[in-house]
Amino acid sequence: MQASDVVVSKDQDHPSERLAHRRLHYTVRVILRDPLAFFSVLVIVALIILALFGPWIAPYPEQGKGRTNVPERFASPSAKYWLGADQLGRDVLSRIIVGSSIALRVPMIVVILAVAVGAPLGALAGYVGGWLDNLIMRLTDLFLAFPSLLLAVAIVAALGPSLTNAMIAIAISWWPWYARLVRGVTLSLRERYFVEAARSIGVSNRTIVLRHILPNCVTPILVQATIDFGTVILAEGSLAFIGLGTQPPAPDWGLMVSQGRSYILDQWWISTFPGLAIFVSVLAFNLLGDTLRDILDPRQYR
Amino acid sequence: MLAKLDYILKRLVMSALVLLGLSIITFTLARVVPSDPAALYIGPRARPEQIEAITIKLGLDKPLYVQYLYYLRDALHGDLQKSIATKRPVVQEITERLPSSVELLVAGMSLATLVGVILGVLSARLQGSPFDVLVRILSLVGVSLPAFWLALLLQIIFYRHLGWFPITGRLDTTLRFTHPIEPITGLYLFDSLVTGNWVAFKDVAWHIVLPAVTLAAYPMGLVARMTRATMLEVLSQDYIRTARAYGVRDLFVTGVYALKNALGPTLTVVGLSLAYALTGTFFVELVFNWPGLGTFTVHSLLKVDYPAIMGVTLFAAVGYVIVNLIVDLLQTWIDPRISLG
Amino acid sequence: MAEPSLRIEDLHVSFFTLTGEVRAINGVSLEVYPGEFFGLVGETGCGKTVTGLAVLGLVPKPGRITRGRILLKGRDLLRLPPREMRRVRGGDIAMIFQNPSTSLNPVFTIGSQLVRVIRLHQGGSKSQAEKHACELLEAVGLPEAEHLMQAYPHELSGGMLQRVMIAMAFSSRPSLLIADEPTTALDVTIQAQILALLRDLQSRFDITTLLITHDLGIIAETCDRVAVLYAGQVAEVGPTMDIFNNPGHPYTQGLIHAIPRPDREVGHLAAIPGTVPSNPGFLSHCLFAPRCPHAWERCWEAQPAPFPVGEGHRVACFLHEGSLLHASQEVPS
What we know:
The complex is a heterotrimer.
Chain A: H1 7-33, H2 35-57, H3 61-65, H4 92-128, H5 130-144, H6 148-159, H7 163-190, H8 193-200, H9 205-242, H10 253-259, H11 269-296
Helix pairs in contact in A: 1-2, 1-11, 2-4, 2-11, 4-5, 4-7, 4-9, 4-11, 5-7, 6-7, 7-9, 9-10, 9-11, 10-11
Chain B: H1 2-32, H2 37-42, H3 48-57, H4 64-76, H5 90-125, H6 130-144, H7 147-161, H8 175-178, H9 188-194, H10 198-235, H11 238-245, H12 250-287, H13 293-303, H14 306-334
Helix pairs in contact in B: 1-14, 5-6, 5-10, 5-12, 6-10, 7-10, 7-12, 9-10, 10-12, 12-13, 12-14, 13-14
Chain C: E1 6-17, E2 20-32, E3 37-41, H1 48-56, E4 63-72, E5 75-76, H2 82-88, E6 93-96, H3 110-122, H4 126-139, H5 145-149, H6 158-170, E7 176-180, H7 188-205, E8 208-213, H8 216-222, E9 225-230, E10 233-239, H9 240-245, H10 250-258, H11 297-301, E11 307-310, E12 313-315
Helix pairs in contact in C: 3-4, 4-6, 6-7
């Protein structure tokens, strides 16, 4: 029997598992009751469905992917084209639907990357302390000293405009947040008694970090990640708008807004609806993140 | 006083190190990534001998760290090389466009801070009321709106359909001849006001409304939310109860007594949102054809004009660090509990 | 017989929370006479702090006074317009709170906060107020008053801050001082000093003091009369000596027996079995009955009125029904 199997870990897990279960139920109930939170969950679920099944849902899927339809260019919103057609005759609605997969894919990859890089570094910095902590902190300071989007813009400019590079750039400018977050939690937990108790019976540092500290980080990371989903959608859309992200003819929402800009005054629907899609998505994620934060209140880890 | 100086010095050193690091990163990216910076410099139709000549002239054949040191030396002397696109010194491009961007930023941030703080304070005091709900929705909307989309939307509504505001540039071109603004600071609002040039002032003001509002949306949302959250916490504190127990008027309690405690975090958020505002200028300037650093940066990025990009990046970094330093100093002045250590 | 400075008549306070109405105070009546040191004692949650706040009209949301009158020198405070009430707060009635470290605004100097209160209630110029503030600080035993005026709250200790609070409270010579657990957050040695200070100021300026505490020891040392609160009602009220020597209410008896005596050998610490009812306001029997060793059928039928058992000594318990006379009688001085 190993030291890690002994009392502290076992008893520590069971109550916290039950606690996590109860919190989940409570969370779900609160969300179902609050109309705004409910709305945001609906929107997000709708987005996921669109992202997964877009090509089957969209009325004109090939146009969604880029096939032009020049004879019908600038068609205003009608029964045939619900949201109108753009400057190349493509159905705006279909483009938005197909574009949802980009919109959701990017934040997922970016957030996963950022957490994968940031969380371990943050935990390391917080737990080990000393020069390692200092080093990692100076590194994050460096990245955080600069507005993150600005940094992302610079990186994409250097790497060349493409969706992949945009994702890399955003991820690079995002990981410091998670490192800081996890470091904060780690620092506050490190001093708690149960860690001291575990250490005193010989539980290895690695086990402590993995089994006791990281699980407690899940909640604040979850809250931050939900809000970040929205922020990343915004960032990616912004990059695409400038021309530093996805390239045509991809149905990226930000790109669509940019392309419709020249016709904004008369054919307003080309830019307005994709932008609306971005807005609603970001709003939904922000709302959900806010609700989660209110419920789970990671302030105790500040 | 001595403690403050010591603190400033420490922060300056830290900031310098951070800037150094940043410059290294941008420089490395700029030199390492493109396959041939020299060819980029001259253009697509260069002959091999020209490329070679330029390479030697720009010192691109020397090792990377040497190049960096040269760059650093020049930068400290105020020379940020020449823009590839315009062939003019980057420093000049920056200084020419700086006032327009500064004016826009100041207008937008002032609007955001003022409106955000007022809304946040009122919303906290009237917690639970319809007004509170409205403010919370508004703030959430503010931080969710894509700046570029808001800009376009405002253009459609307020120009195309209502015709209230213009949507391009800072000033009506005809006014440049009929009522030219004396270039004192380059800030048109200030200059025209100070010289009594009312016609130009009104025109400039009209031109700055939509861009400033667009820029202010996101920071305003942040500021309002932070102010509200902090005020709520402050209003539940014991010392507020004490003030009320001694008959202090509610207006004073909320507006001065409580607010002074809430200003600290609010100030932090203002500094933070400045970062967002900086990136926001890209889109706002682009969409409104505002002749500022934002448009210049975007164009430089698209043309891959490395000296310009590096110059602006460095410049923005310096500015941002300075502003953060000021914000931190203000914090210690507001809250006497914060030590300068 | 003097008129009471403070008369609370049948006070009811409820908190309207998301989970329903919580009746914190269920019919509290008491009189505090001019110049006396009156103690309000009870365990945590019995409503003593809320009573104090109610007098000042500061019951926090979602709480509200639902019934009763609070008369200060004959004026019903609950009927006063807001502006009048503001003048009463800090003017006629002053309150000091439990935690002095958090009772003062951390971003303003001690001096500025004192000056503001002084100018609010007595007018005058800033320099006059500053002079007055210095005098007050010296009167409560704080050295280097001028220096202290420039200090911030976080630079002072708990004991010093409580003295500042006392100075603020006495600044307008209030007719009533309410002290809500003024020493609970302080060291025992400082406790004694603060209590001595309160008693000293009270006798010097003849100020009526309402001391709220959970510590019977403090009551015994300092108070002239005391009211024992249980679950939002007055269980017993009377002169301190009477209550300690002849506790009439089983709850009071339990409390006094629960005090550990170092001079006696005790087998185990006496405690009152059971717990305070969670929402006592909706019960119609004697609130203490479930825990009372002497309860009988009568106790479950109705709630006892305060029956007189001695001079100025009333007990709300059916054990004493008919001891002297029924119904409340004028308490002799």
